[in-house]
Structure formats: C-alpha cells, structure tokens
Amino acid sequence: MQPFEARVTINAPAAKVFDYVSDFTRHGEWSGHGLQVTREGDGPVAVGTVFSTVAKQFGTQREQSTVTEITPNTSFAWDSVGGLGRVHHWFTVTDEGGSTTLVKGAEMVQPSFLARVMTWRLGRDIPKSLQSDVENIKANLERSGS
C-alpha cells in the first residue's frame, strides 16, 4: 500500500514540536480512538524502545510499537505491529523560522490479511486520520504551550 502523509504549520519552535510528538506516552492526547500507551522497560527512549498501545476502533486494537528512528528536532519514527500487520509511522519536523512544518506519515509495510481485504477503506480512512492527528497536535501546542 502506498505511503500517506499529512502536514500542518504550527506556531511553535521546532524543538517544542519535536519534543511533543516524540514523547510516545503523550500520543493519546492528540490521537483518536481513546489511545492508551504503556512503555515497556526503563531508561531513555532510543531506537528499539517498545511501547504497547490499546485503542478502540473496530473493537479493541492492541499493538506493539518499536521506535525505529530518532533524529533530534528533525524526525521520529516507529513500527507498529497489530491486527493490520506492520505499519511504519513517522514524523518530520522542519523549522520555518518562527513556525514549524510538521508531517505525519504512515505506510503499511507488511499488511495482514484483514488489511489487504480492507485496502479500499484504509486508503480512505488513513489520510483522514493523519490529518486529524496533525490538526490536534497543532491545536494542543498552540493552545497550551505543551
């Protein structure tokens, strides 16, 4: 399946935006479907750190997410494995001199049988979900100074 992306301009410094989106435990603040995040293990977050998530969409969805990339103030990525298979997710953060462009993307890299059967619906729903996420992130950062 093709990669999808959504972008938004946020009136906040890139470092602040990056810190917010790379704090996996805060993803439930802007993500839909009642997302709950639990970190596995201790120590600083690094490539290989694992998080367990539970969301309510088409029933209860449980996934394990593993951080695959952290480039401070620039990019943060992870792979989630669950009912849809393995999905690669990423954020890129670009300083625009007083504001920040945030891009959130997703690509199904190893779709499950369910995901292959639902390709038509996922192709419609994923872009909407990504756009909702970046708009919620923008609202949270601009409203509260998180």
Record the SSE blueprint.
Elements: E1 4-10, H1 14-21, E2 36-40, E3 50-56, E4 60-71, E5 75-82, E6 85-95, E7 100-111, H2 113-117, H3 119-144
Antiparallel strand pairs: 1-7, 2-3, 3-4, 4-5, 5-6, 6-7
Could you explain how this protein is built, in words?
The protein has one domain: Alpha-D-Glucose-1,6-Bisphosphate, Chain A, domain 4, CATH 3.30.530. Helix content is 27%, strand content 42%. The protein is built from 3 helices and 7 strands, in the order βαββββββαα.
Give a short overview.
The chain is of the alpha+beta class and 146 residues long.
Characteristics:
146 residues, alpha+beta, Alpha-D-Glucose-1,6-Bisphosphate, Chain A, domain 4, seven-stranded antiparallel beta sheet, 3 helices, 27% helix, 42% strand
- The whole-angstrom Rg is 15 Å
Largest sheet: 7 strands, antiparallel
CATH fold description:
Alpha-D-Glucose-1,6-Bisphosphate, Chain A, domain 4
Q: What is the 3D shape?
A: globular
State the helicity in percent bands.
Answer: 25-40%
Which sequence of strands runs across the widest sheet?
A: 1-7-6-5-4-3-2
Structure class: alpha+beta
Oligomeric assembly: single chain
Question: Uncertain runs with pLDDT below 50, 5 residues or more?
Answer: none
Sheet-strand content, in percent, reads: 35-45%
Q: What is the annotated CATH architecture? A: 2-Layer Sandwich
Number of strands: 7
